Amino acid sequence: MSWLSTNTWEASSDGNWSTFSLRVGSPPQYFYALPSTRYTALRLPFATDCDPRTELRRDTDDSRHTDPRANLFWLTRSSSWKSKTDCDSGVDVIDDDSEGAKNHEYYPDDYRAPVEASSREDDIIQCPGTARVAAPALIGARPVSSSLHGQMSYWWLNGPAFQASVLQSFPLAQNNGLAYSYTAGAWYKQSRGSFTLAGYDRSFRGNDTVGMPFTKHWDRPLNLDVLSISVTGAPMQNSSDPVRLLSSTVSTMIDTTSPFLELPEAVCQHFQDTFGLQYNSTIDIFLVNATTRARLRALAPNITMHVGSDYGNPMGIDITLPYAAFDHEIEMCDGERLPYFPIRVAKPEKGNILGRVFFQEALVDSPAIA
Predict the structure, then answer these.
(1) CATH classification code of 20-197
(2) Is a pLDDT exceeding 90 seen at residue 61?
(3) Which of these, 56, 152, 297, 336, is most buried using a 10 Å CB contact count?
(4) d(Cα 370, Cα 255) in Å, to the nearest integer?
(5) What are the pLDDT digits (tens) for 321-332?
(6) Where are the alpha helices (DSSP H) in the chain?
(7) Nearest-angstrom CA–CA distance, 133 and 335
(8) Please, which pLDDT band fits residue 342 given cuts at 50, 70 and 90?
(9) 257 and 342 in contact (C-beta within 8 Å)?
(10) Ranges of each domain in the chain
(11) Identical fold between 20-197 and 210-369
């Protein structure tokens, strides 16, 4: 089942990302959403008494807000909401807003999936007090594993009866398997994103693919090796030869919740020197001043990432990202938008991450990259 992408590129505070239409509850409450390979449930900004983000609450009868980032989930307005242990989690009716979805024999009128309150831990800009830069909802794509019968498997909890995850709750997953595909789209080409549950979008899949083995990290189970990173046309480049930013293999995990490439410090330093970036330690962001941004736009350098794994295609494939793929703006707590370059020094506790920026030119087709 392919999710319906929207025409909105400004729904996220961390850049121009293609969002997807989401309706939750009865009557439906509307959200702009992004897929997350880290989470298993729908992650929504709650507007309940147990939500300390009081400055984000908007008491209105119209859940389709003028500001696409102002949509909050009101538990009391959904007659189909069923709480679990507290007001921050439960189960509710989900609707992907796809044309013809209801006509499919396996798509019931009461497709229910787990719902959780979004966390401030996901905020890129940590605002003081209760103020918070609003963010889209997240559609968790990761299945839940279980050792229900003494052996770890994703299949023990597969089926609507368990309501273990968005994917496992979807009726088609029982027939089509626990697969999903996602490409982030590209604002610079006006190419909208694609997100499919229990299958993949054939129109986006090419001939070059790399299989991905599962990792031991329960929240980021897909692993991919970055074998090299090179740049052509960079402003600090003294010759026509590509500049190598990474020459030795780095193991990464896929996490589309993050907009960043989260890489070793030495690699980020090479990016900074090559592109003339300015690191702001207060917000942990690599910013781009107006002069550098204009020059980068004029030069239009390309970043080529050679990725692979021992699982399926050890030779690997090239994913080439134009500078425009990194030309985003991030919203600060006071509403100011600053140009930034979405790379970040990887945290030891998280490891190296390939985030959403990578998937503007790549497709994650669990468990493969195309």
Answers:
(1) 2.40.70
(2) no
(3) 56
(4) 16
(5) 999 999 999 999
(6) 166-169, 173-176, 265-275, 290-299
(7) 8
(8) very high
(9) no
(10) 20-197, 210-369
(11) yes
Check residue 274 and give its pLDDT.
95
| pLDDT digit string, tens, across residues 152-173 | 666 566 666 677 788 888 776 6
The distance from CA 88 to its chain's CA centroid, rounded to whole angstroms, is: 21
Are 350 and 340 spatial neighbours (Cβ–Cβ below 8 Å)? no
pLDDT on residue 315: 76
Rounded CA Rg of the chain: 21
Closest CA to 350 of 122, 71, 14: 122
Q: Which residue has the tokens 């505070």?
A: 13
| pLDDT for 62 | 39
Q: What's the DSSP call for residue 159?
A: S
CATH 3.30.450.80 fits 210-369, yes or no: no
CB 306, CB 210: distance < 8 Å: no
Q: Find out whether 38 and 219 touch, Cβ atoms under 8 Å.
A: yes
> Are the CB atoms for 12 and 31 separated by under 8 Å?
no
d(CA 330, CA 123): 11
Q: Alpha carbon 253 to chain centroid distance?
A: 13
Check if the beta carbon of residue 354 is closer than 8 Å to that of residue 338: no
Regarding pTM above 0.90, the answer is no
Between the alpha carbon of residue 21 and those of residues 29, 30, 194, 283, the distances in Å are: 11, 8, 12, 30
Answer for the pair 244, 345: CB distance below 8 angstroms, yes or no.
no
Phi, psi of 360, rounded to the nearest 5 degrees: -70, -25
d(C-alpha 329, C-alpha 118), whole Å: 22
Reading the block at residue 243, the tokens are 């500049």
259 vs 339: CA distance, rounded Å: 14
What's the pLDDT at 258? Answer: 95
What was the pLDDT predicted at 303? 97
Give me the pLDDT at residue 247, please. Answer: 81
